[in-house]
Amino acid sequence: MPRQTFFNLPEDKRKKIIDIALDEFAGRPYSKASLSRIVARAGIAKGSMYQYFEDKKDLFMYLLELAAGEKLAYIEQEVDPGADFFTAFEQSMLAGIRFNLDHPKLSRVIANAMDSTGEEALHDFIVKGRKMTLEYFSQMVRRGQEQGSIRKDIDIKLASYMVSSMLSQGLTEYILDILGGSAVDDLLKKPELAERLNEEQIKGIIDETMKLLRNGLQP
Amino acid sequence: MPRQTFFNLPEDKRKKIIDIALDEFAGRPYSKASLSRIVARAGIAKGSMYQYFEDKKDLFMYLLELAAGEKLAYIEQEVDPGADFFTAFEQSMLAGIRFNLDHPKLSRVIANAMDSTGEEALHDFIVKGRKMTLEYFSQMVRRGQEQGSIRKDIDIKLASYMVSSMLSQGLTEYILDILGGSAVDDLLKKPELAERLNEEQIKGIIDETMKLLRNGLQP
Amino acid sequence: MPRQTFFNLPEDKRKKIIDIALDEFAGRPYSKASLSRIVARAGIAKGSMYQYFEDKKDLFMYLLELAAGEKLAYIEQEVDPGADFFTAFEQSMLAGIRFNLDHPKLSRVIANAMDSTGEEALHDFIVKGRKMTLEYFSQMVRRGQEQGSIRKDIDIKLASYMVSSMLSQGLTEYILDILGGSAVDDLLKKPELAERLNEEQIKGIIDETMKLLRNGLQP
Amino acid sequence: MPRQTFFNLPEDKRKKIIDIALDEFAGRPYSKASLSRIVARAGIAKGSMYQYFEDKKDLFMYLLELAAGEKLAYIEQEVDPGADFFTAFEQSMLAGIRFNLDHPKLSRVIANAMDSTGEEALHDFIVKGRKMTLEYFSQMVRRGQEQGSIRKDIDIKLASYMVSSMLSQGLTEYILDILGGSAVDDLLKKPELAERLNEEQIKGIIDETMKLLRNGLQP
DNA sequence: GATGAATGAGATTTCATTCAT
DNA sequence: AATGAATGAAATCTCATTCAT
Fold it and tell me: What range does the domain containing B75 cover?
């Protein structure tokens, strides 16, 4: 957690720091991100950074919570909690895709974190994050079963892990592929890629995915 | 590619180096892995390492190819290429799971690499790896359609990305979850976890997954 | 350019660093000079050096500019810009000789740099330096022609290169020779050599050189 | 001095080693030249190099003597020892220029050595080389005086140092300048530069220089 | 005579963090 | 609250040289 000093900062300074730090952590793995580079770009003293945040990890976790919070808000705003499973899921997907395209930096920070297995310092935090994600999907699936839109004989946990990975990894890479990018962070370097994806295409992707999800692969 | 020097080494020395290096790269992101630590543990001179490998990247890529090669061999040995899609997929899954449990280190090195987006030095290599994986699944799906076991109206590419992510991420995390581990590399630290998973359980997981894959979620 | 940090240093510390660094760069070619040695002798942390200078090259170029600046100042102070060519040249020579004897370290750093052809990193800088030196002599010669003290049929550029090399190399080595030294940097190791050269001798050398320059070798 | 083993080598192998080593030492200062690079390019074992030469210095000095010998032979062949000073000097110049243009590698090795003041290991050798050069010019000048083509009141040593520096430095840089190169080793990288200099131009340069030498700058 | 693996010192550089001002 | 200098461990990599085979 940032220290109080950070929140006492004039808003534009605070925003600037956040923005530059996001930039840094979005573009490389946690261990390669550099505080030195951040303070240099932000034009603040290195010592100041340590008045604002305990250490590198503290900063990163703050950014991560920020990003996760924004993403959650974005999704919650688009998803009708009362809707049946498939509708809600569709809405989640759409919101997720839009968020990633609109906020590539936030989205990359989250993804970077989730990939940071083996980063001792982040271990617990990542575990917690995964648990929350899983919980989100578990609830959806459970409700789907209760409402009768999902078969009763489905293992909730397994299904949750599966749909979660489909959204966070499979879908992301698929979109990147059809956009012509190669690695996941190409969106950061070539923001114009995102504009190639129009509403219709997004709708097409979602429909295809829903079809898979509903009926599986078998004829 | 390692230099000839490396291959001229007595086998036990070569094995030892590989083993220790795998250990290093399995447990942390590429940028945090340390050649210094490796040579210290291996009891060889720093200069020697550079007689064997061009540089850090060269070493990592060698290990990665080694791991990928072993995994591929393992899977190919278990999968009947003539079988229909769902059978072949089942066999792939089983082989994949077994490989991960039997060779957690190799499996972690592969996973680490695939997560190393943003690692400039590895970019091209990772992209290539992803392409190959996708190709593998694409062919399976395509053949499945031709043989009539998969619906004709399914987008091959999308489906491939989805099943790929399910296997590489969703399934892995699910298994780890039921094993009681928390993060993906816990298997490295507590190898005894792997033994908790018996044949029956594995069969159960596979059956559940196949059900999802065949019929989707809908009743 | 050194970072601001360096200029904020207490003067004696700054001087000490400069002095030790000059020592290091005066005595060996650029590529053999060692930052590690400098910090060890200066009793500062290696990291500190990188707070002061961007890198080795930055440090060297700073020292070089320092030395060149001091030499230029020294010479300008002794040379009457309005004087006719031969007077001005005589004054230049005298100032140059005195500078080299009084500041052997600075003088060696400059000479080392000018010899550092093939030092990729310094290439552009050296070229620039040579251009400036040439320009200095070209102007002198050109003015000499305009004032009628130099023959009109003389190729300015060629003459400039020639007098430049005579001063920077021929004269230096001659003086060293009569002082009993052997290589150009012997003055650094045996500073007492310099004292052997008295005013009269210097005057003699200059007169001889001027004679050559004015009338050439022919009777 | 190379060991006997080196001279026992088949000629083409010996030539190849020499050629590649010349390449290495021509392009960078002694301390940056690398034996590792040489053996790699020559395709021989590192140990073999140490069967042929005592160490790096031994190799370099051999190359240097080789280059110096060739240059001397080249010059002696073109210079009539009985001719009067100015004729002999003219011939020397012409031969020197031609040698440098025809054998840029050899010429660069020599120049690199002469610039390697401060290179502890080479100190004595360089001193010796300079002495020999000086001796060469001293004799010329002395003979010139005896023959009456040079004024009697000229200091032989000073004049020798001056003409020596004019030829080895001033002239070289002048030629490079009009060829469009910037640093002395540009001739190595762009050999086509040399071809721009035709016979007539060379003659022009020599005439100009002789004029300076004979009559000095004064009208 | 040839080989080439082994060595280890040493080079430059980066980094997160501390702390006196 | 802000500063920014100081630190030193650690990283990657290069090199000349040795020596057993």
Answer: 66-215
